[in-house]
Amino acid sequence: MYEIRVEHTFSAAHALTIGSAREPLHGHDWRVRVTLEGPSLDDDALLCDFHTVEDVLRQVCAPFHNQTLNDAPPFSEGANPSAERVARAIADELADRLGEALAPHARIASVSVTEAPGCEATYRPPEASA
User: Fold this and answer.
1) Containing domain of residue 32, as a range?
2) How many domains does the structure of the chain reveal?
């Protein structure tokens, strides 16, 4: 199995609701780490081009940068913008946008989001059924 990893950082604020109490709005420098995996390489001996993944990850994170996550889709409809949900939202959008760049050799293995040193949430998408 091969793996590649790409990272990106953006700054954004959020206010979580925990136990029906809303915490104060506060900001983070969010570090996003995307891991792709696959059992084989393409004709160029790549799992997936780093530059493609970097560009798409930057595009996916751009609507969050310098924003309040509570006001940004997909959280603007009232979804709690926890690190876990941010990781999943990024993973889902990456999978949609990368599409052909991933197939048939690679898949998103995980997306990890660090909102503060030592505080990391990871989402691992389910494997697609054959």
Assistant:
1) 2-12+26-123
2) 1
